[in-house]
């Protein structure tokens, strides 16, 4: 695709702008900012990736993955700002998920140990983990806020913090995992995943594209489970003080 062809695709930006203006939605500025940022960021990343792929340096690969984790951590921790040490908890979760998934992929020689595979797959894993962290923290803080009386009642009856928070924790883990599970139920019927579609458009054999897409889907399922469970069990202890009392905070 040439830059001229790419510029023609801006028609797809003009349409929502016109609709927003006509219906007085007030989304024109946000749409323009989002478009400009996506253009600049993706083109910049494209040139950086070209340099990294050409160099095949492990140092550059590590720096790219580290940058992804830092950016994802910064974005996700905002939803759990009231939870003590949430930034480090999110960072540990993202790093653990990345190490686990890449360890399996490279350890079993499922994918080559090259930048061409490590960086894109890491981007999908870290990005998905970030979204799941946001979903979990958003639901968890909401559950805690709406069930404070129930939690304090269990504590007053001699229950442990884990027992007092168990229902809210499990509900939050399940809620954050459901979108990933449900999307996999209809894949291929309702939609063709982006990676698979991109490979087919690029001329790859459809069966090979399907096989690689299945790998990514299974990978993201593990990402969903590990992220939600790990972040949940790292977060809940900090909601209680040494006397096993729920620390009341505005969590929403």
From TrEMBL:
<feature type="transmembrane region" description="Helical">
    <location>
        <begin position="117"/>
        <end position="137"/>
    </location>
</feature>
<comment type="similarity">
    <text>Belongs to the UPF0014 family.</text>
</comment>
<dbReference type="Pfam" id="PF03649">
    <property type="entry name" value="UPF0014"/>
</dbReference>
<keyword id="KW-1133">Transmembrane helix</keyword>
<feature type="transmembrane region" description="Helical">
    <location>
        <begin position="88"/>
        <end position="111"/>
    </location>
</feature>
<protein>
    <submittedName>
        <fullName>ABC transport system permease protein</fullName>
    </submittedName>
</protein>
<keyword id="KW-0812">Transmembrane</keyword>
<feature type="transmembrane region" description="Helical">
    <location>
        <begin position="57"/>
        <end position="76"/>
    </location>
</feature>
<feature type="transmembrane region" description="Helical">
    <location>
        <begin position="214"/>
        <end position="236"/>
    </location>
</feature>
<keyword id="KW-0472">Membrane</keyword>
<dbReference type="InterPro" id="IPR005226">
    <property type="entry name" value="UPF0014_fam"/>
</dbReference>
């Amino acid at each position: 695709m040439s830059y001229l062809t790419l510029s023609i695709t801006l028609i797809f930006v003009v349409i929502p702008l016109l609709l927003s203006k006509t219906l007085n939605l007030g989304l024109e500025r946000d749409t323009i900012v989002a478009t400009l940022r996506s253009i600049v960021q993706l083109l910049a990343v494209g040139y950086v990736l070209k340099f990294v792929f050409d160099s095949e340096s492990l140092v550059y690969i590590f720096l790219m993955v580290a940058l992804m984790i830092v950016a994802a951590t910064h974005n996700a921790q905002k939803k759990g700002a009231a939870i003590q040490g949430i930034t480090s908890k999110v960072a540990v979760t993202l790093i653990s998920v990345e190490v686990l998934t890449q360890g399996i992929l490279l350890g079993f020689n499922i994918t080559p140990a090259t930048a061409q595979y490590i960086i894109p797959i890491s981007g999908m894993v870290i990005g998905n983990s970030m979204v799941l962290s946001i979903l979990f923290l958003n639901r968890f803080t909401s559950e805690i806020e709406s069930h404070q009386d129930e939690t304090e009642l269990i504590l007053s009856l001699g229950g442990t913090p884990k027992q007092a928070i168990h229902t809210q924790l499990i509900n939050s883990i399940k809620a954050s995992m459901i979108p990933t599970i449900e999307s996999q139920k209809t894949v291929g019927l309702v939609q063709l995943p982006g990676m698979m579609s991109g490979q087919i458009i690029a001329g790859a054999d459809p069966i090979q594209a399907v096989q690689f897409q299945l790998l990514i889907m299974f990978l993201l399922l593990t990402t969903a489970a590990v992220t939600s469970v790990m972040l949940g069990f790292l977060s809940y202890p900090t909601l209680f003080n040494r006397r096993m009392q729920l620390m009341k905070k505005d969590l929403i």
